[in-house]
Amino acid sequence: MIVWRHSNRKPVPQNPVDQEIAFHIAELTENLIAEGLSPGEAHRRAVLEFGGHEQVKQQVREVHISAFVDGLLFNLKAAGRFLRRSPLFSIVVILTLAVGIGANSAVFSAIDGIVLRPLPYPNSNHLVAIYQQDYKSRDANHFVAPVRLEDWNRMNSTFQAISGYYFDDLSETSGSLPEKVTECLVAPRFFEVMGVSPALGREFAPNEEHWGGPRAVLISYRYWQRRFHGDSLALGEKVHVGGFTSTIVGVMPESFQFPNAGVDMWTTSSPDAPFAQRRDATWFTVIGRMKPGVTPHEATADLLTVQTQLGKQFLKPDAELTVQTQALKDVIVGDSRGSLWLLYGSVSLLLLIACSNIAALLLARTTEREHEISIRFSLGATRIGIIGQLLTEVFALALLGSLAGLLLAGTAARGFHLLEKTLPRAEEISLNWQIVAYTLAAAVLTTLLCGLFPALRGTRRTLAQSLAAGSRTQISARGRVQWVLVFMQITLAVTLLIGAGLLLRSFRQLSRVYPGFDPSHVLTFQISGSWGETSDMPKVTQRIDRSLDAIRAMPGVERVATSAMLPGVPALYQIEFKIDGKVDPGHPILADSRYVSAGYFETTRIPILVGEPCRQASKTSDVLVNRAFAEKYMSDASPIGHQLSGATYNDFLPSGMIRGITGNAREEGLNTQPVPTVYSCFSAPTPFPNYLVRAQGDPMAMAETIRRRIHEIDPSRSVYSFAPLQDHLDDASSENRLRTMLLAIFAATAVSLACIGLYGTLSYLGRLRQREVGVRLALGAMRNQIVARFVLQGLRVAVIGCAAGLGLGLWLSRFISSMLYGVSALDPATYGGVICLILLVAACASLMPALRAARVEPVEVLREE
Amino acid sequence: MAPIEKADLLQGTLDLLILKIVALGPVHGYGISQRIRQISDEVLQVQQGSLYPALHRLEKRGWLEADWGESDNGRQAKFYRLSAKGRKQLAAEEDTWNRLSRAVELILATAR
After folding, report:
1. Which letter does DSSP use for residue A210 in this model?
2. In chain A, whose CA is at the least distance from the CA of B76?
3. pTM for this model (two decimals)
């Protein structure tokens, strides 16, 4: 007799089945020993008698798993049968979900790649950009002198290292034609800050970082592939760049594209060079790697302390400077964040609409399956079981839909790579397992959103009720749920449409604006040069003037000029000015400073209102101001003849006399009102300024002849970046255009989905109420009364939906107000237009099912009864 | 009499036998197999490959409850008890079995 002694305190062993089996064998062995066998033999026999240990274990395990798997498999099989039986319904749902989930996953993949994922450098959250800023003038010049960079690096206590970089666009002259290369000149410790080592070769040696040391370059992966076809023999090869010969000491990994993907090679900029000792030099964009555990706030405070010390030591200019930091990721991602979240919000609304649409379809279907469901109940199925079955059907659809959506998202992810100019980090967007997981999660969520309510509702009534109830009593109740879904769809569609409408209106406003200059027929390009040349400025000016002369003499060229920045491409270089050497401390004279050569105003067709434009070969330094400047700062007297000079320490612009006043032009970006601007007449503000050519015909047709002409006069330089000015302007607004276009597409999809929902619901109700309509007609109702009833029912929901959508739109519009130009976020025309459009579309969507419902023949319906 | 192997046992009979044995008092798997053998005079021998899956299945259905305890030999063993639900099930199955066997007997007796 077995005595069972209960013991609560004993913990359940690790693997209960194993232990259970072990116990059995032990007992059996003991029994056999009692029968007279030797312990060894008894154990052997016991194991033998028990049979396959693993097999038993497996079978026990199957008991536990199979219940779940059986259920799932059964449900899936049933779901498969169900879907095959109604292919049209399945295809509609799968396609709707494919678009809904696919668009959602695509936008999420962009958000993941651009906003969520860290930059592709080790511990990249420790990386910050560091700016210097003038205390008083809010000077836009953030570039830092090499000596100050070294001071910061030496005196701080919160950074592992601080470094910096700037660019030269140069020619590489080993080949038959000079090739333009972009060289990134880096301060010492650059790769230490980034935390990246060369894929091949080595970093710079200490002597290569000193003035007069051997010249070395690290080349980018792209350049390595383009020039050396990925051959490791490239190490040790020479490149002839900007008149110097350097040795290739390493190749950077493919993923390293800092500061941008266009960099071909990195070389050193020596802090001990004799020309690098001025404290007012403006060279480096500074980056730093904070020590682990240091917050950006602490790092900034530390640098401010350092700068205060420097200010005591070097009264001018360091005492006037303050320091700011910004996470490097924020610098790179910039404004795209807002656009991306806006798009994400929109596609999520779209998915919600799709879900409610499908939920309405499913509701209608569960009604049709009432009979099947009550049979299941009567056969003893539990409510949970039936809900599980119904949900499995939806899940199968959602799964298929999300797989199709994943294909869509994959295509979109590749498409994003083409938007390199529009989106930062575009090449980092990829379809990884996180996106796949996200998509599957979306499928599960969609299943619950679409399926749970119809399933709960469809199985709510008990068997008895279901058998007893006639369909007439339930119509109104079930209809109400359908109408709530239609209402939701219209609300969300109105919201999306308002957003899209505002963006579209803003975009149209923007394209209607006359920018104040004429970008048509203007070709832009650059000619390579090096900042090193600026040690002999007269020579640079001479070179650029010579090329301007040569181009001007070419047939087909109307006008030619150079400028530091292209008109209309967003850039603002705001500095503080002094008029006639006087500074009014309370009212700083802030203006955008632009450098343009003679011929600029003629080329861009910016009118000269008073005075004269920049002259070639002027012995004096001339400046012009725009009307905004004249009106804001010099309204009481004519500005002509006054002296204008930079108020801050670091402006290499000598003072100049105001020679003329120009018209206002949107030089700082087409979406910004013209700001006070000072034009300094100077053809060589950088060694590689933008050339602007006004051509008589198609500007791009000039490109090849210009390239050849420049090669004739200066064979060592390359000519690059040929593009019509209009292209630059389009690029500058491409994010805006993309955002507007996508939102418009989403809104259009949302409206069509809402229409389908309205149409479907009315058709469904029309079918259900055939009998009622038949009776009404038999009792003498007019057909047009019936039509009116149905249309009004549809319109009533549309009106309520519009009201709610209007409210939601008003509330949400604040999020896009910063993206709008020339349109208020509360623009009544947009809101009114959206309402009219929705009501019109809703009336159309209601009319057809209403007409069909009224076409009932009373005799036939009543006979069915 | 030759022992009857599992394959010859009527489907569902094993569940009935297990429920019946467990109804006598908490008992572990080994005990169940021994008792079935002893009580049936060695006619019925349950394969462990059927016994343990059956025990777990019955436990999953809520007819059996199980606890870990100490056997006579002081080892840890999993003891099975009949639940209230299991008691009802046992009654139902016994009833079915009795009716079935009476019917079979009746047919055999009449045909003789």
Report:
1. S
2. A23
3. 0.71
